[in-house]
Amino acid sequence: MLVRIIGLLLGGLTMGAAAETPVPHPIIVNDDGHGGFYSGRYTSAEAIREKIARYQGTHVRIFEWCITMGSRANYPSQVTEIMGTGMTEFPRRGDKRASELMHKLAAEGVDTLAVVAKACHDTGLECFASIRMNPDYAASWMGEGIPRMFNSNFWWQHPEFRVRGPKGEDRTKLSYAFPEVRAFKLGVIREALERDIDGLNLDFLRHPPFLGYEQPMVAAFQAKYGEDPRKLRADDPRWLKLEAEVMTGFLREVRQAADEAGAAKRRRLRISVRVDHKQYRAWGLDIERWMKDKLIDLLIVAQHSLGGYVFDLRPFVQMARGTGCQVFFGEEVTLSGHDLTPEEDKAIAAGTMKPPKRDHLTLQMYCDRARQWYAQGADGIHLFNDHNNLPVLRILGDPALFPPAENK
């Protein structure tokens, strides 16, 4: 197997006639839209275009460009602010670099999402704008520098719209129970749909929760059941049903916005969602309903943790059968390690500390795992935190190396 892979990478593996060549598995890669600025790689529109052009000759079919960190954006938005807006001191050197580059490009008239979309089309890829659905940071996180960098003015100005625990405790995230929050999120989505993108990726792994015991939720439950949900188990089926109704209502609004934009572009704009294989119901994500009602086109099943996880994908493949929705296994490529803290960054700059090690999936691990997911019926694989690994991207979709499930 490994010899054959090496031969393919070196160009030594020949395929049969085109008519006999099976269709490659599609690969999706996610670029967080921050790391390239943080490291100083994305200094210009041309640098971004060059990065995407490197996917020529790989099995990547969809490139996801994340447009939000926290609830701020990396493009000149009219709905929220560019990351780092209003800051003079930054938590880490890379954050300062990222904010300065984003503001510089915006001042030059560069719309990064539009640049990415065109570069994708020039390379033969679909471009999905990826939105992290609730990744704001607690106000005191790491001395407030990180939340000031990434959390929007909307978040700071409206603490009354945050998720609440059963005792009223502030749980940081904006709550989809409030129409104002849904309108804010939809504003960012509609703005992205104005660009020449092909779809949306709604990333529900960044980060739950999406609902809690806010007044609208408590009042709706009491009106329907005559009980206080704060006195019940969090997994009470009636409570989970109410959460699902709220989130499905939001998905319908997203689908409508995508359909309206797609009608103007004369094509269907696809929607993908990334969810946790265990917790999706607890988070109000009724993925079975979303697939049956054609609200989504791609389901990415992963885990809200570091990578290396294993679970059975077959129930999700079965769930999707007959709906037209494709199912992707979601690989989180980082196996260990963490993002730099401001204190660590200062120590590294001072030369008193080496950058902490982060372990990632190896080529052999990728291959062993891919065989398993394809055998369980995956249509393709979604890569998170590994969008630069060209050797992997050249082989991971090869059906000759990774045959699809026999019943596909």
Task: Set down the secondary structure blueprint.
Elements: H1 2-9, E1 27-31, H2 35-38, H3 45-53, E2 60-66, E3 68-69, E4 72-73, H4 93-107, H5 112-123, E5 126-132, H6 145-150, H7 153-157, E6 162-164, E7 170-174, H8 179-193, E8 199-203, H9 215-225, H10 237-265, E9 270-276, H11 287-292, E10 298-302, H12 314-320, E11 326-332, E12 334-336, H13 342-350, E13 359-360, H14 363-375, E14 380-384, H15 390-395
Parallel strand pairs: 1-2, 1-14, 2-5, 5-8, 8-9, 9-10, 10-11, 11-14
Antiparallel strand pairs: 3-4, 6-7, 12-13
Would you kindly provide a written description of the structure presented here, covering whatever features stand out?
Helix 3 (45-53) runs parallel beside helix 5 (112-123). This protein has an eight-stranded parallel beta barrel with strand order 1-2-5-8-9-10-11-14, surrounded by four helices. Strands 3-4 form a two-stranded antiparallel ribbon. It has a two-stranded antiparallel sheet with strand order 6-7. It has one domain (25-395): Glycosidases (TIM Barrel, Alpha-Beta Barrel). Helix content is 38%, strand content 16%. The protein is globular, with a radius of gyration of 22 Å. With 408 residues, it is an alpha/beta fold.
Question: Can you summarize this structure?
Answer:
The protein has helices at residues 2-9, 35-38, 45-53, 93-107, 112-123, 145-150, 153-157, 179-193, 215-225, 237-265, 287-292, 314-320, 342-350, 363-375, 390-395, and strands at 27-31, 60-66, 68-69, 72-73, 126-132, 162-164, 170-174, 199-203, 270-276, 298-302, 326-332, 334-336, 359-360, 380-384. With 408 residues, it is an alpha/beta fold.
